[in-house]
Model the fold of this input.
Amino acid sequence: MEKEHKLNSIEELLEDNKFLNNILNGIKDAIMVVDKDYRIEGVNESFAKKVGKPKHEILGRHCYRLLCYLSKPCVHNHPCPVEEVFKTGKIAEVLHTYLEGHNVAYSRIIAYPILDDRGDVIRVVELERDVTEWKKTGDQLYNMQKLAFLGKLAADLSHEFNNPLSIILGFTDLLLEKTEHGTQNYEILKAVERQAFNCKRIVENLISFAASPDVTKYSTDVNKNLEGVISVVVDILHTEKIVIDKRLAGDLPRAKGNPGHLRQVFMNLITNAVAAMRGGGRLTISTKHNTAKNRVEIFFKDTGHGIKRKYRNEIFDPFFTTREIGEGGGLGLSVCYGLVFRNDGKITFETVTEEEDRENKGTIFTVSLPVAP
Ligand SMILES: Nc1ncnc2c1ncn2[C@@H]1O[C@H](COP(=O)(O)OP(=O)(O)OP(=O)(O)O)[C@@H](O)[C@H]1O
Ligand SMILES: [Mg+2]
Done:
């Protein structure tokens, strides 16, 4: 009778255990239980999957060794919620940012204390959830709110900015004509002109960024518009010790796209190339009719510092910039992307940094536009 009762309670225990395991394994967050020595006492299937090891290779190991490849608890790296719980006895929560290949990933980690009868923490349960998508949607929403605000601001201020800028540029031009080349005053006026042009470009970017898509059909003589933009920046290139190499195809058909928009794209790409070649370099601008694809292709090749691997996924994002505050708002490329994309065009780049290959460093941006119908 007693034996039967014992068997029944073992069966019940096994049932309970199975029930609990099913619950834990049904949870898609990675769960781990660690003791006071940071040894892993239990994990669920999501945890094993995330770590990429079977459970028997995980249990009994120190969490800092298995997860952070460290020889002692990770107090000095990023904040460790497990350590925090042992220290404070309270729930701890952190957002971890890490690289997954080339992409940034985010996970939210919450650690809960398990107390003994005296109220001391004897183990910690840690729950980890991948919140990358959620975080990105939140960031996008934040950027969209910024955009809506920017749209209104740009519309309100563009005229206010454009008029004084045109006056500054007009008077600077007038004074430049009356000033001897090569004198200090001439150089000062040139600097004023350069900065005013930069402001004009940023205001134009803001307006384009805020404006609703232009669906009017246009066609553009790409070579002529490139020449127009180059003539505006040729002095700047000279001052920056940048040699310009033009290789414009003679038989280029007209491309689909608004000429004003395309000039803005060219100006942004040239400005970026100039900024990447502090101390001088060579800017090669070429055009080509890709007959196989029936597209007009425009190449901007610089010998600048290149784009670091970690930034390559982000350069087209609005507000992404590596420049100092006041030097650029990070709208140039995202505006280029939008303006080109509206005309079924594409903009791509290839880049080599100094660290990758000192001899061949530099970046090529390629704008590919459909031939105008
Ligand atoms: N030719 C290039 N060589 C090296 N880095 C570049 C080049 N073009 C763009 N980048 C990188 O991409 C970032 C984003 O460029 P983008 O034109 O969108 O913004 P910005 O130049 O920083 O500011 P803005 O154009 O609004 O004045 C730059 O800050 C720079 O780090
Ligand atoms: Mg730029």
In short: The radius of gyration is 30 Å. The domain at 133-210 is CATH 1.10.287.130 (Helix Hairpins).
